[in-house]
Hints:
The complex is a heterodimer of chains A (118) and B (110). With 118 residues, chain A is mostly beta strands. Chain A contains no helices and 11 strands. Chain B is mainly beta and 110 residues long. Chain B contains no helices and 9 strands. In chain B, strands 1, 3, 4, 7, 8 and 9 form a 6-stranded mixed sheet that branches. A 3-stranded antiparallel sheet of chain B has the order 2-6-5, with no helix packed on it. Chain A binds chain B through residues 35, 37, 43-47, 59, 61-62, 95, 100-106, 108-111, and chain B through 1, 3, 34, 36, 38, 40, 45-48, 51-52, 57, 89, 91, 93, 97-104.
Amino acid sequence: QVHLVQSGSELKKPGASVTVSCKASGYSFSDYAINWVRQAPGQGLEWMGWINTKTGSPTYAQGFPGRFVFSLDTSVNTVYLQISDLKAEDTAVYYCAKIWSGSYFYDWGQGTLVTVSS
Amino acid sequence: QSALTQPASVSGSPGQSITISCSGTSTDIGNYKYVSWYQQHPGKAPKLMIYDVSSRPLGVSNRFSGSKSGNTASLTISGLQADDEADYYCSSYAANSALIFGGGTTVTVL
């Protein structure tokens, strides 16, 4: 059974950095890309991009500047989202999701709330 | 790419059918068959309900159906039930290998 377990909620001050982890289990980690999806409070879903879990190569959606970085550690089947120079508008729930059938997300992490506040 | 356009809210009585529209362009919905729908209950992760415009993953009720015409996709929920009350998001593959979501529709069961 596929499981994606994310790290816990974070409270950060503006200008700080945060790393959200997403640990995968129950399938062959390197066979399926992991995507990240953002959901600001009371707002809709926003696709952030994905990381190739075989090569480690990231692809970022438009609108996500260099402050957002995807990485992975294959030794522990974990993908990371690092956000630097945090801003109030980065406050959101961040989900990791395993790609399925090319363009869909069947398995999701539970979400990680990142709150940026002074 | 801009978000796909969905109505903010749709409501219906138990047992009724409702349809949620999702309007895109010729560079996303109109050009690809990779349209999907997600259901999201408050505080929960989204759940895939429809993929490839009209296919249902295993375990999803056949009360949920999807279709597409031109640049607009639709999700129909028939035999509306209390547990169908949730937010629904459409999604489409788009040019430059992007994925885009709609703004979301809140379904209320009266």
